[in-house]
Amino acid sequence: MRQSELFTKTLKDDPKDEVSVNAKLLTRGGFVYKNSAGVYTFLPLGWRVIQKIAQIIREEMNAIGGVELFMPALVEKKYLDASGRWDVPIGFDVKGKKEKNPGFALGWTHEEVLTEIASKYVSSYQDLPFAAYQFQTKFRNEPRAKSGLLRGREFMMKDLYSFHESEEDLSRYYEEVKKAYLKIINRCGLKAIYTTAAGGDFTVSNTHEFQVEAEAGEDEVILCRLCNFAENKEISKEKAGGKCPKCKAGVLEKINAIEVGNIFPLGTKYSEAFNLKFKEKSGESKYVVMGSYGIGVGRVMGTIVEVWNDEKGIVWPDSVAPADVHLLMIGGQEKELQKAADDTYNKLVKAGVDVLYDDRGTSAGEKLFDADLIGIPLRVVISEKTMVQEKVEVKERSKKEVKLMKVEELIKSLK
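Given the sequence above, the corresponding structure tokens read:
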């Protein structure tokens, strides 16, 4: 991608209406645009990051037998009436201009929708277990929309739902999802803390959150670093400074953290609401046991920025960066230099390297400033000085060291 083709621009100053690090840097770097409180547009560079995160999630969901689908954002009232969740205050009601009463809600979760669908296809133990997931925009009437991508009214989520014969089989799959989530978050450059939490509007039992330690985190977690015992402070009876109840050796801490994912054992709550039953081998009819599992895709992106940044800007982990290489042409607009830079770009692209090519006619200082702000892992500079040596200047975003390399050597190192 040529940077001259982007219609967006970077900003030198922080936006006045943003407080969080992720909102400031993502806005300044041209990754997101704030439309309203808690509502953002993902601009071209930001959408690239979202796609990278979504692909990591997709790969791990497929690996544990999840099948992808796409459900509607408009959820008819009858679905939420069946489960008793129509009046949950977090939802947005929708009605047509000629209608007196709302007949739909903007989907804030999809347990009801998929359970009703499953009731048309599941009849026997042979139809179970199965798991289905989607990437979908969710809408929640968040009264305190703030912290950039960490607390929004409209956001992208991956939600997975699983269907089982028994609680035992749900527990088996629940553990598989736990491992997959830990792997996803690790692949995104973060370290997750598996945390016991309350159920809320989703389930009456305890649930589990995947928390990432960060100063900006609104959640407080009671944590033992020795054995990884962790409970959300909202439900924990333990206190910081006390002995860990699990390992009896560690000292408990209270930390701030950002919740990037959660998993819920649903039991038969929704299958009872939609009469989702199956026949066992014996012929006995039973309700299907369910689980629900969510990851906030945009929230993962915001959390990465909260963790991976320095005084100059974002420092993207390789796995989710908007490109592998930021190629900068520095110097005049002489045809020879332009040709050398274009040739370098074409060689990298042909070799399968994902490149953002800063071919703009701006100053060297502006290009270097933008490269640090945008935070692509590898900066490659071609200038009159490097062109004479038939080399390029290579620098990792997270390091100070600068190397001179031939393009072929660079390609080989990237492979």
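The domain at 11-310 is CATH 3.30.930.10 (BirA Bifunctional Protein; domain 2). Try to locate this feature in the token string yourself.
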